[in-house]
Design a protein that fits this description.
It contains 16 helices and 14 strands. By secondary structure, the protein is α/β, with parallel strands linked by helices. The protein is elongated. The termini are far apart. Belongs to the serine/threonine dehydratase family.
């Protein structure tokens, strides 16, 4: 097991090489949860996630053993950037094997940090296998989570939390392979044993929860998830005993809850979190985790590397779910001024038109009428009802979508 002394040594070794990220209180989420809610913002870390901590500790601790071939790792994103940054800071070469489907943005970021990127493998498991074979050529392999030195590096987050907020009541942490929660739990339970450690997984890939229920590591089926950073089919061998001993509970969150949490962090705190980083808030706001009223709760927002196209979809889906966007179709006379009158009515009740599609023809349309599809920004569901009632009162036949 990892000791508190091991973690303190790791913190000293990586000091100055990684950012000591802030722990900030959120008045908004505190009010919503009726507790004192703090956010540990690892998205502000170098490379945009906590991963650089473990990678930096591994590289610096093994610096004298690393030969001219450098280090090798496999990752679809955050671990790749963490290893690339750690290797660059230590002055050693880094080779990163990424699955062929890894996003272009994460490939470019990894290249930008000075690593060589090789695209091999239909799955992350295949990429890891290739990277491990490359270690036979003299490189040191850096596993993304199943490695005690990696876990020890991630544990430094726990020390920082306790320094800023002694004896928190609950610390909520994402779980993928288990390296992050294993490290944080090791640090916090050593100094604050009464603190509850709760892990959160996407329901699309419940590997840690399944392992705890069955009493052994198992491989689960993984569905596509916004929280792709924690979609690990089987938790690490080194992590499982730590999780079983030190983690008090594990809960699952659904995709719509994750999406809503990403949007809430963006709108309420101006914090960009990737899906995996937002799952602690998703669990709290959906009441998957019950916290005592007035208790001190820490959410580990583990990373902020959300690709721009995906962010756009997340925001749009969240706005639709929260009634901030209304989509509807209306039939109007195919005559000059008809569209202007419709838009004027929408404007009168405060709707802001975002998009219009005007279609003529169709088997269900008169030759003298046309259909207009509108997307309107609103303040919420009450304004959607007001727009709908106003238009119907003026004789419009409308169909609200979604």
């Amino acid at each position: 097991m990892i000791t508190l002394e091991d973690i303190r040594k790791a913190a000293l070794l990586i000091e100055g090489s990684v950012i000591r990220t802030p722990l900030v209180r959120s008045p908004t989420f505190s009010r919503m949860a009726e507790a004192e809610v703090y956010l540990k913002l690892e998205g502000l870390q170098k490379g945009g996630s906590f991963k650089v901590r473990g990678a930096t500790y591994k590289v610096l601790k093994r610096r004298e053993e690393i030969g001219p071939a450098g280090v090798v790792a496999a990752s679809a994103g955050n671990h790749a950037q963490g290893v690339a940054l750690a290797a660059k800071a230590a002055g050693v070469p880094a080779t990163i094997v990424m699955p062929i489907w890894a996003s272009m943005a994460k490939q470019e970021a990894t290249l930008g940090y000075g690593a060589e990127v090789i695209l091999v493998g239909e799955s992350l498991a295949e990429s890891i296998s290739v990277a491990q074979k490359m270690a036979d050529d003299g490189r040191i392999f850096i596993h993304p989570y199943d490695d005690e030195e990696i876990i020890t590096g991630q544990a430094t987050i726990g020390l920082e939390i306790l320094e800023d907020l002694p004896n928190p009541d609950v610390v909520i942490v994402p779980i993928g392979g288990g390296g992050l929660i294993g490290g944080i739990a090791s640090a916090i339970k050593a100094e604050s044993p009464m603190t509850r450690i709760v892990g959160v997984q996407a329901a699309a890939c419940p590997s840690a929860l399944t392992a705890l229920r069955e009493g052994k590591r198992v491989s689960v089926r993984a569905e596509k998830s916004l929280a792709d950073g924690i979609s690990v089919k089987e938790i690490g061998e080194a992590n499982f005993p730590i999780i079983r001993e030190k983690v008090d509970d594990i809960v699952l969150v659904e995709e719509v809850e994750i999406s809503s949490a990403v949007l809430a962090l963006l709108e309420r705190k101006k914090i960009l979190a990737e899906g995996a980083g937002a799952v602690p808030l998703a669990a709290l706001l959906s009441s998957k985790i019950k916290v005592p009223k007035g208790s001190k709760v820490v959410l580990v927002i583990s990373g902020g590397n959300l690709d721009s196209p995906l962010l756009e979809r997340v925001v749009r889906q969240g706005l639709l779910k929260n009634g901030r966007i209304m989509r509807f179709s209306a039939c109007i006379e195919d005559a000059p001024g008809s569209l202007a009158r419709l838009l004027s009515l929408v404007a009168e009740v405060g709707g802001n038109v975002l998009a219009i599609h005007h279609a003529r023809g169709g088997k269900d349309l008169s030759l003298f009428r046309s259909r207009v599809d509108l997307e309107v920004e609103t303040r919420g569901f009450s304004q959607i009802e007001e727009i709908e009632e106003t238009l119907k009162a003026r004789g419009y036949e409308i169909k609200v979508k979604g």
